[in-house]
Amino acid sequence: MAICSECDSVLDFDVEEVDEGDVIVCDECGAEYEVVGTDPLELSKVDNEGYESDDAVVVDEEEE
Asked: Cα(8)–Cα(6) distance, rounded to whole angstroms?
């Protein structure tokens, strides 16, 4: 399960359906995250200019 670093909401997407480079958008606040790895799942927050920032998303593999 991935958690938004902006609003602490669960990011709603199918882990099996994403590929590296895909962008996940938080339904609650609109924050964008790029998939930078799939095994294990790694997301990186995208800033306002479209660049990856240092903010990471918590991914709990046990609850996926």
From this structure: 6
Of the pLDDT bands very low, low, confident and very high (cuts 50, 70, 90), residue 64 is very low
The 10 Å Cβ neighbour count of residue 42 is: 16
Considering only the C-alpha atoms of the chain, give the largest distance between any 2 of them, rounded to a whole number of Å. Answer: 33
Quote the CA–CA distance of 29 and 15 in Å, as a whole number.
Answer: 20
Q: Coil, helix or strand for 50? A: coil
**Which is nearest to 46 in space by CA: 19, 14, 21, 18?**
21
Which tokens in the block code for residue 21? 């480079």
Q: Domains of the chain (ranges plus CATH)?
A: 2-63 (2.20.28.160)
12-49 pLDDT tens trace: 999 899 999 999 999 999 999 999 998 889 999 998 65
